[in-house]
Amino acid sequence: MGRYMRASGNKDAPFEDKRVLVTGGTGSLGKVLVRRLLCGRHGQPARVLVLSRDEAKQYDMRLAFARLAAASEDVVYRDHEKVLRFRTGDVRDYATVVEVLRGVDLVFNAAALKQVPNCEYFPSEAIATNIHGALNIARAVSEHALPVEAVIGISTDKACHPVNVMGMTKAIQERTFISANLKCPHTRFMCARYGNVLASRGSVVPLFHSQIKAGGPVTITNREMTRYFLSLEQAVTTIVDTYRVGQPGEIFVPRVPSSRIETLAQCLIGERKVAIEDIGIRPGEKVHEILVAEDEAERTVSREAYYVIRPALPELGGSARIVPALDGEYSSRTGFMTRPALMELLRVNGLRVEDEPDFGGMFGTRAMPTLSEQQA
């Protein structure tokens, strides 16, 4: 049998009284994750520590939470100063990682270099953050026998059969965390793997908005290109659920629809007289993305709203037979959203051009609901 560990004790409030570290917490995903942690929806953590290299973004984030606390009727927001802490530092530095992991129950590793062309031009930088950062976390927990309950690595569809540096480094990060379970038997190392996050920094949606407002053209790299799409809130829910019900070495994959990039452009353009121009694939780009590879499908099970890839290592995967949830790869080339469904996704997330979303805002394009609204 593989090693089975009890998941989060209180599945309704998994973060209650937890001390949480979010590396890369000032990025698009990290900020929404921190907001979710602080809102009390999944229990009130004792402490949330954000580790990032950018002190300016930390300052902006402090101000944003101060404004949110002032405008909110919820005590959990007003008490953020007692819970939220910032640490300027880098996951590349082992001494820093050891320091911030002391006294932590739970780690969300959102620190990453994830722009595909940038990683192609500067592969050593991607290796330093995406691989050595993960190695530092695993090494610190092991060498210092730190009582960390769980580490969740934030991965990407590009880690599946990678063809670019970003995907390759993320694939190695996944393997790093999975193998860490063997040296750290009291810590659950798991990963959440998902596709493109709508409106995150560097995504096509802000670019398309800018191009449409300028009168066009809207530039796409290939008319057949497809991608998975999910909102920042859906991405955070995937990460939370990985911690809530995941077992050592598992990779959680949300079941989300895909779309052609050209269809996304058409939905955003609407009736406007704006042209679409094909400019050719960028360095490292794929035409289609894969979230579960064919060789992973045979050890992929269904759990709640996710496909869960069981670890290939026999010490973790066990010998028990499973019923695979897939009979082949899970790829963006199938399961397209209809155009009306994509339009509705954009509307619900406030991402239509006429919605005038604030892509430079701290916490995505939609205001965070109050605790009472979330529980309604």
Brief sketch in words of this structure:
The chain has 15 helices and 16 strands.
Describe the structure.
This protein is α/β, with parallel strands linked by helices. It has one domain: Rossmann fold. Helices cover 39% and strands 18% of the residues. The chain has 15 helices and 16 strands. The strands form four sheets. It has a nine-stranded mixed beta sheet, with helices on both faces. It has a three-stranded mixed beta sheet with strand order 7-9-11. Helix 1 (28-39) packs across helix 10 (232-245), helix 9 packs parallel to helix 11 and helix 11 packs across helix 14 (339-348). Residues 364-376 have low confidence and may be disordered.
Keyword list:
376 residues; alpha/beta; Rossmann fold; 9-stranded mixed β-sheet; 3-stranded mixed β-sheet; 15 helices; 16 strands; globular; disordered C terminus
Q: How is the topology of this model organized?
A:
Layout: E1 19-23, H1 28-39, E2 47-52, H2 55-71, H3 75-78, H4 80-83, E3 84-88, H5 94-101, E4 106-109, H6 116-121, H7 123-143, E5 150-156, H8 165-183, E6 188-194, E7 196-197, H9 204-213, E8 218-220, E9 226-230, H10 232-245, E10 251-254, E11 258-260, H11 261-269, E12 276-278, E13 290-292, H12 294-297, E14 300-303, E15 306-309, H13 314-317, E16 330-331, H14 339-348, H15 371-375
Parallel strand pairs: 1-2, 1-4, 2-3, 4-5, 5-6, 6-10, 7-9, 8-12
Antiparallel strand pairs: 9-11, 10-15, 13-16, 14-15
Helix pairs in contact: 1-10, 5-7, 7-8, 9-11, 11-14
